[in-house]
What does this fold into?
Amino acid sequence: MRGLANIIFHEPRLIAILPAAGIIMDYSLTFIFAGGREMIMMYEYSPIMRYSAAMGLIIPTMLIIAGFYYIITNTGLKALSNSNIYPFGVAIAVIVTLTHIMGGFSWIIKNQIYTYTIHGMSLMTIIIAFTAFLYSVMLDKGFINHKYIQ
It folds into this structure.
């Protein structure tokens, strides 16, 4: 099984499926559990979701955003594939996926701490991206020795 996980980890096309699937799950769960367009319009955090609900375009919007997520994630991970910060990119893709899935379940789990956790995960992606940037700069400037990195 370790071999399969390694293959998936190093294949940007497979990792890129995760955020796209996450957005589809988020929109689907929202549409199923929100209780109607009015509830989405009143309580949904995402302005894109509110707008698409108002216009009756939830499914096309969901598919367009899922396609956008796939293309951006695949392109970004391919660009990072031969770098030391590729694992950071994979971590961001996984956290974005989990954040969307948890966002969809927020219509069932109506708890303020749960909502703060979802926002915290969004902030975590920013922190990871900033850390990856600093790590990359430190490697380029020679502050981190390559021989100590496994």
